[in-house]
Amino acid sequence: MTITLNHTIVPAVDNREAARFFASIMGLTELPPAGRNGHFAPVRVNDTLTLDFMTVAEPVGVHLAFDVDPDTFDGILARLREAGVPYGNDPVDPGNGRIDHPLCPRGLFFVDAARNLYEVMSPA
């Protein structure tokens, strides 16, 4: 059997706000609340994966990296700029406004309120 990742929990200051932010930047779909008492705010990433945002008292940011095609990268970059969200090519300085990523032709990092670090990489 092939192993695929079904979902992962992403810590959040406010699960619905975090899911909405991530979905809006990435151009993805927010799903209805899930889990006991709706404590997960899931976002569909692809056919097999959701990120399930969960409110926690003291969130510790995680690093999530995504490979995207050039058109998807352009859309993400445009939405970051339109929303005034800082981005950059360095995880230590994710607000430097650069997209010349050290591991690929174009890439960037951005953070959310829980200091989750999102990395987006494109082959062109």
TrEMBL record:
Residues 4-123 form the VOC domain. This is VOC family protein. It comes from Microbispora hainanensis.
